[in-house]
Amino acid sequence: RITRPQNAFILYRKDLQDKIKDENPDADFKEISRIAGNRWKHEADQVKNNYTLLATLGGLVHQDLFPNYKYQPRQRDERK
Fold first, then answer.
1. Which of 13, 31, 43, 51 could make an SS bond with 36 (beta carbons 3.0 to 4.6 A apart)?
2. Under a CB-based contact definition with an 8 Å cutoff, are residues 54 and 11 in contact?
3. Comparing 78 with 48, which gets the higher pLDDT?
């Protein structure tokens, strides 16, 4: 199965995950995402632009690797 290209926030969250985990050792995935989301909201535009550029470049690479890819979300019953 081909996965979707990562968006700017997902890349940002992935970069922050270890740092957040060090600061909050008991945090689970949901809590880490909440913290990352709050930080993303208050992040400088330049940082957001950098991650947006990375996501755009990643999308272009994804398009080259999988030229016929089209996002087709599965129905809820099909996910399990």
1. 13
2. yes
3. 48
